[in-house]
Amino acid sequence: MSTSTLPAAPPGAPAPRATRAITPARLLPWLFLAPSLAVLAAITGYPLVRMLWLSVHEYERAQLLGVPARFVGLDNYTATLTDARFWTVTARSFAFMVVCVVLTITLGTLVALLLMKLGKAMRLVLSVGLLLAWAMPPLAAMLVWGWMFDSQYGVVNHLLTRLGSTSWMGHSWLIDPASFFAVATLVVVWGAIPFVAFTLYAGFTQVPGEVIEAAQLDGASARQRFFGVQVPYVRSIYVVLIVLSMIWDLKVFTQVFVLQGIGGIKSETSTLGVYIYEMGMAQGHYGAASAIAVIFTVLMLVISAYYVRATVKEEEL
Amino acid sequence: MKILRFGAAGLAAALLLTACSSGDTAGGDSTGGSSGGSDGAEIRVWLVGTDTPDKARDYLKTTFEDENPGSTLTIEEQSWTGLVDKLTTALSSSDSPDVVEVGNTQAATFTSAGFFAPLDDVEADLGGDDLLPGFVKAGTWEGTFYAAPYYAGSRIVFYSQQLLGGTAVPATLDEYVSTAEQITTPERSGVWFPGQDWYNALPFVWENGGFIAEPEDDGTWKAGFSSEGGIAGLEQVQQLMTTASNAPKDGDESELQVPFCAGQTTFLSAPNWLRGSIQAAADAEIPGCADTYGSDLHAFPLPGKKAGTTAKVFAGGSNVAVATKSKNVDLAKKALTIMLSDEYQTILAENSMIPAKKSLASALPDDEFTQASAAAAANAELTPASPKWGDVEAQRVIQDALVQIAQGGDVPTIAKELDATIESILNG
User: Fold this and answer.
1) What is the structure's pLDDT at B338?
2) How many alpha carbons fall within 13 Å on the CB side of residue B225?
3) CA neighbor of B242 nearest in space, from A170, A304, A4
4) How confident is the model over B133-192, as pLDDT tens digits?
5) Buried (b) or exposed (e) across A143-179, using 16+ Cβ within 10 A?
6) Where are the alpha helices (DSSP H) in B28-157?
7) DSSP E strands: which ranges in chain A?
8) In degrees to the nearest 10, what's the CA dihedral of B141, B50, B395, B311?
9) Is the CB of A50 inside 8 Å of chain B's CB atoms?
10) Any idea what DSSP says for residue B363?
């Protein structure tokens, strides 16, 4: 969203007259794209190239201060791919991602349907609530969530103790990896629902009323109307939302990192993003961390490529 | 339909791009850098935590600015959590702070990689042979002196007489464990021992004959938590954590005055300067309990295995250094000299921090807390002198193992895994 696609004519662009003579029709779009491409090259391109370079060098803390880095070829990659920890972390990240995506999309759909049904006033209240959850910076949100689940002073333990007969005071929610990820899932899904709900709501409102009415007249039940009419209409939106959620939930960092600072066992709860940080920033193995990051990027490209191809194909029909 | 699809695809593209570009640009304070020349330069000093008293901060700023007219000195307070990561980023950037405080066990991570400017030329001005030898060693790499001692301290055991009552103060480490167990109730711990508090676990390992890691003849490191003594020590730790402490099993050792002031524990093993936090007024900015449990506060050094000895404890403290990338190394060294001056160090000593110079020990207040601390410090041990030790701390491997021990895990298995991890880092 940071790259506007409606740029003013780039200041340093060649005069259109000179190019018009050759292939004006082919050059003009590129001219319009130039500013965005320049920004992209600087912001995304350079770090990407740098990451690839780092991943084939032995780059430690000393290299940060000018000691020349040694070229090691694919050593960092082979070390990563033969490291059992890498595979554990990857499997954990994917399992976490699948749970989060399923929950986010399901709950997001339900909230979107609720938005359709609500009256004006309640819809406004719900929208504002969703917006607030969405607008909250993850770090700030995490500190609040962390406090709610605090072992000693947390409101969750307090309420559970008051509700039942057993004492929950002192119960640690983060010490057991399964429970840790339950909390992490709750926070991630909480933060992701608003975007999914708003987008789906926007999609559902575009489904022509007469089509639904026709289905109703033909005797379709609410369930049939939803799966047979509404969902197919917004299918492409679902595809995009699922792909985006998969990418976001795979690269989740803040939530897990902050929770690890509050409690829990680091080595049993790291996801890929946190693992890369541990390797790179905490331990100073920048080369090895970059290799993991490259592998991670390839994994994500594979995921998105499959769906992008599916979308494009559908578009061409 | 077409329009819907197109919109969705566009949205996806836009979000993908922002998703990629919003990557981690961690750290980086945007304080304007210094202006190049030594005239009118701005020196930035990073102090960690709230340990340095305000009086010392004011003294540093005023003295520096008086001695170097036109230049200014800014103190920026950092947090101990994630310090190694943050220093790595900041010290290698073009906007590096000029003088930084670093934990004594973390110093080697930076001295070995060239992050600090050599201090050999000013060593005599800083105090020379008067400086605490263990800390000079921690700040020296391959014969070059990079990081000066800042202050030292050690953990002592605090208690409130009204809570301990008639129970005798333990004379040996085993007695300490059994006393703590006996006085524990569901509401009040015998000793407050959060699962991540590895500093307090080390004395048990050392006193039972274990060790963290020792260099082998071939230059590799051998970790010793799974040695006979190491396991015996960790089992005592487990006993305390499971039967004498109600502290969170995965909690850390920050803000220890809070449970103490809430009356949740009888014994509290903490750095000696925590006394100030405990005895702060109840309505202070960081509240203490001067009128309740802080009113009859006492302390003793952690006892050793044999009666009449003190336990080997972790030698806490900090080093200070000048950043290699500082734009005004000479001015930064002047600021460092002020921090090691007798006047400045005396202020630290008056606040119960063991000063960086041996000759100033007499400035320490003559109370039982400081005496307990001095007795403990006399028997203090350091972490392994490896440049990779900082990585062990940054990866929190000992904390992870202790949290598992606090939950009642099998000590020999956990210790063995811990040793394997430590060896793979130190020898990696």
Assistant:
1) 96
2) 27
3) A170
4) 888 988 999 899 999 999 988 899 999 999 999 899 999 999 999 999 999 999 899 999
5) eebbebbbbbebebbeeeeeeeeeebeebbbbbbeee
6) 54-67, 83-91, 107-111, 123-126, 133-138
7) 57-58, 70-71
8) 80
9) no
10) G
- Residue B151, helix vs strand vs coil: strand
Q: Which of B:238-277 have CB within 8 Å of A?
A: 246, 248-251, 259
Two structure tokens written together for A264 = 């829990």
Among A60, A86, A57, smallest CA distance to A74 is for A57
The reply to whether residue B18 touches residue A2, judged by beta carbons under 8 angstroms, is yes
Give the distance from CA B28 to its chain's centroid.
Answer: 23
Quote the CA–CA distance of B130 and B133 in Å, as a whole number: 8
Residues 6 or more apart whose Cβ sits within 8 Å of residue B88: A61, A64, A281, A284, B110, B115
Residues linked to residue B267 through DSSP beta bridges, in sequence order: B159, B191
Cα–Cα nearest to A257, from A162, A138, A171? A138
Nearest CB neighbour to A44, from listed B21, B26, B407: B21
Residues B260-313: tens digit of each pLDDT: 999 999 999 998 888 888 988 888 888 889 899 999 999 999 999 999 899 999
Interface test with B, best of A153, A156, A166, A172 (most B CBs within 10 A): A172
Q: Burial of A215 by CB count in 10 Å (0-12 exposed, 13-18 middle, 19+ buried)? A: middle
- pLDDT under 50 in chain A at which residues? 1-16, 18-20
Cβ-Cβ contacts under 8 Å, B12 against chain A:
240, 243-244
Cα Rg of chain B (Å, integer)? 24
CA–CA distance, B168 with A176 (Å, rounded to integer): 38
Q: Which among B9, B24, B391 has the least Cβ separation from residue A284?
A: B391
Give exposure, B21-51, as e/b (b: 16+ Cβ within 10 Å). beeeeeeeeeeeebeeebeebbbbbbbbeeb
- Judged by a CB distance cut-off of 8 A, whether residue A307 touches chain B is no
Whether the CB-CB separation of A86 and A271 falls below 8 Å is answered with: no
Question: pLDDT at position A52, please?
Answer: 95
Q: Which residue in A172, A206, A277 is closest to B248 by CB distance?
A: A172
Predicted local distance difference test score (pLDDT) of residue A316: 61
What are the structural domains, with CATH classification, of chain A? Answer: 70-153+168-316 (1.10.3720.10)
| Helix B397-406 vs helix B228-243: crossing angle, to nearest 10 | 60
Check: CB of residue B320 under 8 Å from CB of residue B335: no
Structure-token match 């310090």, residue found: B83
Residues 6+ apart with CB under 8 A from B263: B163, B188, B292, B293
Strands B313-314 and B380-381: parallel
The overall pTM is greater than 0.90: no
Distance (Å, whole) CA B277 – CA B254: 12
Residue B60 identity: L
Low-confidence ranges of chain B (pLDDT < 70): 1-39
Query: ipTM higher than 0.90?
Result: no
Q: How far is CA B329 from CA A227, B34, B38, B65, B125, in A?
A: 70, 12, 10, 16, 15
Strand-pair partners of B44: B74
Touching check for A237 and chain B: CB below 8 Å? yes
